[in-house]
Amino acid sequence: MAQEALSGIPHYYLYGDQGADVELDFLHMEPIRDRSGPHDWRIRPHTHPDHMQVLLVKSGGGTIRMEEQILPIPVPGILVVPAGIVHQIDFNPGTDGFVVTAALGCLKTAAASDPRLLKAAERPAVYPLEGTGVSIPAVIDTFEWLHREFIWSAPGRRTAIMAQYMRILVVMLRLNVTHDDPGIAAPDRDYDLLVRYRALLEAHFRSERSLVFYANDLAVTQARLNAACKARAGKTASDLLYERIVIEAKRYLVYTESSVAQVAHLTGFDDPAYFNRFFTQRVGVSPGAFRKQALHQEA
Question: Where is the HTH araC/xylS-type domain (predicted)?
Protein backbone atom coordinates (compact mmCIF):
# COMPACT_ATOMS: atom_id res chain seq x y z
CA MET A 1 0.00 0.00 0.00
CA ALA A 2 1.44 3.36 -0.97
CA GLN A 3 3.42 5.07 1.80
CA GLU A 4 1.56 8.35 1.41
CA ALA A 5 -1.73 6.56 2.07
CA LEU A 6 -0.61 4.93 5.31
CA SER A 7 -1.09 8.10 7.34
CA GLY A 8 -4.81 7.93 6.61
CA ILE A 9 -5.22 4.27 7.62
CA PRO A 10 -7.07 3.89 10.94
CA HIS A 11 -5.30 2.06 13.77
CA TYR A 12 -7.63 -0.07 15.88
CA TYR A 13 -7.59 -2.59 18.70
CA LEU A 14 -10.83 -4.07 17.34
CA TYR A 15 -12.28 -2.78 14.06
CA GLY A 16 -14.40 0.29 14.74
CA ASP A 17 -13.20 0.75 18.34
CA GLN A 18 -11.56 4.16 18.54
CA GLY A 19 -10.92 4.20 22.29
CA ALA A 20 -7.27 4.69 23.17
CA ASP A 21 -7.90 3.44 26.71
CA VAL A 22 -8.35 -0.19 25.63
CA GLU A 23 -5.85 -2.20 27.66
CA LEU A 24 -5.56 -5.87 26.80
CA ASP A 25 -2.47 -7.97 27.24
CA PHE A 26 -4.45 -11.09 26.45
CA LEU A 27 -6.83 -11.93 23.60
CA HIS A 28 -10.35 -11.36 22.33
CA MET A 29 -12.53 -13.69 20.29
CA GLU A 30 -15.83 -13.27 18.49
CA PRO A 31 -17.81 -14.76 15.58
CA ILE A 32 -17.13 -13.07 12.25
CA ARG A 33 -20.79 -12.07 11.92
CA ASP A 34 -20.79 -10.06 15.18
CA ARG A 35 -18.61 -7.28 13.76
CA SER A 36 -18.82 -7.79 10.01
CA GLY A 37 -22.60 -8.11 9.78
CA PRO A 38 -23.34 -4.63 11.20
CA HIS A 39 -20.74 -3.20 8.80
CA ASP A 40 -22.47 -4.73 5.74
CA TRP A 41 -19.84 -7.48 5.65
CA ARG A 42 -17.07 -5.03 4.69
CA ILE A 43 -14.11 -4.36 6.96
CA ARG A 44 -12.46 -1.24 5.56
CA PRO A 45 -8.67 -0.72 5.44
CA HIS A 46 -7.10 -0.51 8.90
CA THR A 47 -4.30 -1.94 11.04
CA HIS A 48 -3.86 -3.34 14.54
CA PRO A 49 -0.56 -1.89 15.79
CA ASP A 50 -0.25 -4.04 18.91
CA HIS A 51 -2.33 -7.11 18.09
CA MET A 52 -2.30 -9.93 15.54
CA GLN A 53 -5.37 -11.68 14.20
CA VAL A 54 -6.13 -15.18 13.01
CA LEU A 55 -9.47 -15.93 11.37
CA LEU A 56 -11.19 -19.23 10.73
CA VAL A 57 -13.65 -18.98 7.83
CA LYS A 58 -15.99 -21.99 7.99
CA SER A 59 -18.46 -20.96 5.29
CA GLY A 60 -19.21 -18.05 3.01
CA GLY A 61 -15.93 -16.54 1.87
CA GLY A 62 -15.09 -13.31 0.07
CA THR A 63 -11.80 -11.51 -0.51
CA ILE A 64 -9.07 -10.10 1.71
CA ARG A 65 -6.57 -7.39 0.84
CA MET A 66 -3.32 -7.35 2.82
CA GLU A 67 -1.01 -4.55 1.71
CA GLU A 68 -1.16 -4.65 -2.12
CA GLN A 69 -2.42 -8.22 -2.56
CA ILE A 70 -6.10 -9.09 -3.00
CA LEU A 71 -6.81 -12.78 -2.52
CA PRO A 72 -9.94 -14.94 -2.43
CA ILE A 73 -10.79 -16.36 0.98
CA PRO A 74 -10.75 -20.17 0.85
CA VAL A 75 -13.54 -22.08 2.60
CA PRO A 76 -12.70 -23.52 4.98
CA GLY A 77 -9.61 -21.41 5.47
CA ILE A 78 -7.29 -19.66 7.91
CA LEU A 79 -6.28 -16.00 7.54
CA VAL A 80 -3.24 -14.68 9.41
CA VAL A 81 -2.99 -10.89 9.84
CA PRO A 82 0.17 -9.87 11.76
CA ALA A 83 0.33 -6.67 13.80
CA GLY A 84 0.84 -3.57 11.66
CA ILE A 85 -0.36 -5.10 8.38
CA VAL A 86 -2.89 -2.94 6.53
CA HIS A 87 -5.85 -5.09 5.56
CA GLN A 88 -9.39 -4.90 4.19
CA ILE A 89 -11.91 -7.74 4.09
CA ASP A 90 -15.04 -8.09 1.96
CA PHE A 91 -17.00 -11.06 3.27
CA ASN A 92 -19.84 -12.71 1.42
CA PRO A 93 -23.07 -12.02 3.37
CA GLY A 94 -23.69 -14.68 5.99
CA THR A 95 -20.06 -15.77 6.25
CA ASP A 96 -19.49 -17.91 9.35
CA GLY A 97 -16.34 -18.33 11.41
CA PHE A 98 -14.30 -16.74 14.17
CA VAL A 99 -11.81 -13.90 14.67
CA VAL A 100 -9.11 -14.16 17.37
CA THR A 101 -7.33 -10.91 18.21
CA ALA A 102 -4.27 -11.45 20.40
CA ALA A 103 -2.03 -8.89 22.05
CA LEU A 104 1.62 -9.24 21.12
CA GLY A 105 2.43 -10.04 24.74
CA CYS A 106 -0.10 -12.86 24.71
CA LEU A 107 1.31 -14.15 21.43
CA LYS A 108 4.86 -14.17 22.75
CA THR A 109 3.82 -15.99 25.90
CA ALA A 110 1.98 -18.65 23.92
CA ALA A 111 4.89 -19.06 21.50
CA ALA A 112 7.63 -19.10 24.14
CA SER A 113 8.21 -22.85 23.91
CA ASP A 114 8.78 -22.84 20.13
CA PRO A 115 10.10 -19.77 18.24
CA ARG A 116 8.65 -21.18 15.02
CA LEU A 117 5.16 -20.43 16.32
CA LEU A 118 6.02 -16.74 16.53
CA LYS A 119 7.52 -16.76 13.03
CA ALA A 120 4.34 -18.31 11.64
CA ALA A 121 2.26 -15.60 13.34
CA GLU A 122 4.43 -12.87 11.82
CA ARG A 123 3.81 -14.07 8.26
CA PRO A 124 0.71 -12.60 6.56
CA ALA A 125 -1.04 -15.51 4.92
CA VAL A 126 -4.22 -17.00 3.47
CA TYR A 127 -4.35 -20.76 3.93
CA PRO A 128 -6.91 -23.22 2.57
CA LEU A 129 -7.55 -26.16 4.89
CA GLU A 130 -8.61 -28.62 2.21
CA GLY A 131 -5.88 -30.96 1.05
CA THR A 132 -3.30 -29.89 3.64
CA GLY A 133 -3.36 -32.94 5.89
CA VAL A 134 -4.62 -30.79 8.77
CA SER A 135 -7.75 -32.19 10.41
CA ILE A 136 -10.52 -29.72 9.57
CA PRO A 137 -12.91 -30.98 12.30
CA ALA A 138 -10.08 -30.63 14.85
CA VAL A 139 -9.35 -27.05 13.72
CA ILE A 140 -13.02 -26.07 13.93
CA ASP A 141 -13.31 -27.74 17.34
CA THR A 142 -10.29 -25.77 18.61
CA PHE A 143 -11.81 -22.43 17.62
CA GLU A 144 -15.20 -23.38 19.02
CA TRP A 145 -13.66 -24.57 22.28
CA LEU A 146 -11.69 -21.34 22.57
CA HIS A 147 -14.88 -19.35 22.03
CA ARG A 148 -16.72 -21.29 24.74
CA GLU A 149 -13.92 -20.64 27.21
CA PHE A 150 -13.76 -16.98 26.20
CA ILE A 151 -17.45 -16.28 26.91
CA TRP A 152 -17.65 -18.41 30.09
CA SER A 153 -16.22 -17.58 33.50
CA ALA A 154 -15.22 -21.05 34.63
CA PRO A 155 -12.29 -21.97 36.89
CA GLY A 156 -9.04 -22.14 34.93
CA ARG A 157 -10.50 -19.98 32.15
CA ARG A 158 -7.26 -18.15 31.31
CA THR A 159 -5.23 -21.37 31.22
CA ALA A 160 -7.83 -23.07 29.02
CA ILE A 161 -7.87 -20.10 26.63
CA MET A 162 -4.09 -20.13 26.33
CA ALA A 163 -4.11 -23.89 25.70
CA GLN A 164 -6.53 -23.55 22.79
CA TYR A 165 -4.70 -20.52 21.42
CA MET A 166 -1.47 -22.53 21.40
CA ARG A 167 -3.27 -25.22 19.40
CA ILE A 168 -4.24 -22.56 16.86
CA LEU A 169 -0.62 -21.40 16.63
CA VAL A 170 0.43 -24.99 15.96
CA VAL A 171 -2.14 -25.17 13.14
CA MET A 172 -0.69 -21.96 11.69
CA LEU A 173 2.83 -23.37 11.91
CA ARG A 174 1.87 -26.58 10.10
CA LEU A 175 0.07 -24.65 7.38
CA ASN A 176 3.07 -22.34 7.09
CA VAL A 177 5.38 -25.31 6.58
CA THR A 178 3.17 -26.77 3.83
CA HIS A 179 2.79 -23.45 1.94
CA ASP A 180 6.00 -22.02 0.52
CA ASP A 181 4.19 -19.02 -0.91
CA PRO A 182 1.21 -17.66 1.04
CA GLY A 183 0.53 -15.15 -1.74
CA ILE A 184 1.29 -12.01 0.28
CA ALA A 185 4.06 -9.65 -0.71
CA ALA A 186 6.82 -8.91 1.77
CA PRO A 187 6.00 -5.88 3.97
CA ASP A 188 7.79 -2.59 3.32
CA ARG A 189 10.89 -1.21 5.05
CA ASP A 190 8.86 0.65 7.68
CA TYR A 191 7.20 -2.59 8.72
CA ASP A 192 10.51 -4.45 8.80
CA LEU A 193 12.07 -1.71 10.95
CA LEU A 194 9.12 -1.76 13.36
CA VAL A 195 9.36 -5.54 13.77
CA ARG A 196 13.11 -5.33 14.45
CA TYR A 197 12.61 -2.47 16.90
CA ARG A 198 10.00 -4.42 18.87
CA ALA A 199 12.34 -7.42 19.03
CA LEU A 200 15.09 -5.15 20.35
CA LEU A 201 12.73 -3.70 22.94
CA GLU A 202 12.03 -7.18 24.28
CA ALA A 203 15.71 -7.68 24.95
CA HIS A 204 16.56 -4.29 26.43
CA PHE A 205 13.51 -2.33 27.62
CA ARG A 206 14.35 -2.85 31.32
CA SER A 207 17.80 -1.33 31.04
CA GLU A 208 17.83 0.93 27.99
CA ARG A 209 15.53 3.96 27.85
CA SER A 210 17.42 6.03 25.27
CA LEU A 211 16.28 6.02 21.66
CA VAL A 212 19.90 6.67 20.70
CA PHE A 213 20.73 3.12 21.81
CA TYR A 214 17.92 1.54 19.75
CA ALA A 215 18.50 3.68 16.67
CA ASN A 216 22.24 2.93 16.71
CA ASP A 217 21.66 -0.80 17.10
CA LEU A 218 19.22 -0.72 14.17
CA ALA A 219 21.65 1.40 12.11
CA VAL A 220 19.11 4.18 11.50
CA THR A 221 18.59 7.71 12.75
CA GLN A 222 16.12 8.47 15.54
CA ALA A 223 14.03 10.38 13.03
CA ARG A 224 13.90 7.35 10.70
CA LEU A 225 12.92 5.06 13.58
CA ASN A 226 10.16 7.44 14.67
CA ALA A 227 8.87 7.76 11.12
CA ALA A 228 8.60 3.98 10.76
CA CYS A 229 6.83 3.59 14.10
CA LYS A 230 4.37 6.36 13.29
CA ALA A 231 3.67 4.95 9.82
CA ARG A 232 3.09 1.37 10.94
CA ALA A 233 1.99 1.63 14.58
CA GLY A 234 0.58 5.15 14.76
CA LYS A 235 2.88 5.87 17.71
CA THR A 236 6.36 7.22 18.31
CA ALA A 237 9.27 4.96 19.17
CA SER A 238 9.19 6.38 22.70
CA ASP A 239 5.48 5.59 23.01
CA LEU A 240 6.15 1.95 22.15
CA LEU A 241 9.04 1.78 24.63
CA TYR A 242 6.98 3.24 27.47
CA GLU A 243 3.99 1.03 26.65
CA ARG A 244 6.22 -2.05 26.86
CA ILE A 245 7.46 -0.97 30.30
CA VAL A 246 3.89 -0.37 31.50
CA ILE A 247 2.75 -3.79 30.26
CA GLU A 248 5.55 -5.49 32.18
CA ALA A 249 4.75 -3.50 35.32
CA LYS A 250 1.09 -4.48 35.06
CA ARG A 251 2.04 -8.15 34.79
CA TYR A 252 4.09 -7.99 37.98
CA LEU A 253 1.35 -6.08 39.80
CA VAL A 254 -1.39 -8.54 38.79
CA TYR A 255 0.37 -11.90 38.71
CA THR A 256 2.97 -11.61 41.49
CA GLU A 257 3.01 -10.51 45.11
CA SER A 258 5.98 -8.20 44.60
CA SER A 259 5.72 -4.86 46.36
CA VAL A 260 5.42 -1.70 44.27
CA ALA A 261 9.05 -0.91 45.10
CA GLN A 262 10.08 -4.38 43.91
CA VAL A 263 8.06 -3.96 40.70
CA ALA A 264 9.87 -0.66 40.13
CA HIS A 265 13.22 -2.44 40.44
CA LEU A 266 12.12 -5.35 38.21
CA THR A 267 11.14 -2.93 35.44
CA GLY A 268 14.39 -0.98 35.60
CA PHE A 269 13.61 1.93 37.92
CA ASP A 270 16.09 2.82 40.66
CA ASP A 271 13.66 5.26 42.29
CA PRO A 272 10.24 3.81 43.30
CA ALA A 273 8.79 7.32 43.54
CA TYR A 274 9.72 8.02 39.93
CA PHE A 275 8.23 4.69 38.88
CA ASN A 276 5.01 5.63 40.70
CA ARG A 277 4.80 8.92 38.80
CA PHE A 278 5.70 7.25 35.48
CA PHE A 279 3.01 4.59 35.91
CA THR A 280 0.32 6.96 37.19
CA GLN A 281 0.87 9.41 34.32
CA ARG A 282 0.41 6.71 31.70
CA VAL A 283 -2.25 4.51 33.29
CA GLY A 284 -4.30 7.11 35.13
CA VAL A 285 -4.06 5.42 38.53
CA SER A 286 -1.19 4.58 40.84
CA PRO A 287 0.42 1.12 40.77
CA GLY A 288 -1.24 0.25 44.09
CA ALA A 289 -4.65 1.36 42.90
CA PHE A 290 -4.24 -0.54 39.63
CA ARG A 291 -3.43 -3.71 41.55
CA LYS A 292 -6.51 -3.33 43.75
CA GLN A 293 -8.75 -2.76 40.72
CA ALA A 294 -7.33 -5.79 38.91
CA LEU A 295 -7.74 -8.06 41.93
CA HIS A 296 -11.32 -6.83 42.40
CA GLN A 297 -12.15 -7.62 38.78
CA GLU A 298 -10.69 -11.12 39.13
CA ALA A 299 -12.70 -11.81 42.30
Answer: 195-293
Confidence of residue 4 (pLDDT cuts 50, 70, 90): very low
Q: Residue 184's closest CA among 31, 291, 43, 79?
A: 79
Q: Angle at the Cα of 26 (from 184 to 277), degrees rounded to 5?
A: 115
Residues sharing a CB contact under 8 Å with residue 57, sequence separation 6 or more, in sequence order = 32, 73, 74, 75, 76, 77, 78, 79, 95, 96, 97
Q: Can you tell me the distance from the alpha carbon of 7 to that of 234, in angstroms, rounded to the nearest whole number? A: 8
- What are the residue ranges spanned by the domains of the chain? 9-178, 190-298
Is residue 8 packed enough to be buried (19+ CB in 10 Å), middle (13-18) or exposed (0-12)?
A: exposed
Task: List Cβ neighbours of 48 (8 Å cut-off, separation of 6 or more).
Answer: 11, 12, 13, 81, 83, 84, 101
Residues 58, 96: Cα–Cα separation, whole Å = 6
* pTM for this model (two decimals): 0.74
Q: Which of these CATH numbers, 3.40.630.10, 3.90.1150.10, 2.60.120.280, 3.20.20.80, describes 9-178?
A: 2.60.120.280
Ranges 7-21, 96-110, 199-213: which has the least confidence: 7-21
Residue 76: asked if its preceding bond is cis (omega within 30°), the reply is yes
Going by C-alpha positions, the residue among 113, 132, 236 that lies closest to residue 182 is: 132
**Residues making up the chain, counted from first to last:** 299
Q: Which numeric CATH code is attached to 190-298?
A: 1.10.10.60
Compute the distance between CA of residue 164 and CA of residue 158 in angstroms, rounded to an integer: 10
Q: Which of 169, 18, 46 is nearest to 100 (CA)?
A: 169
Higher pLDDT, 105 or 42: 42
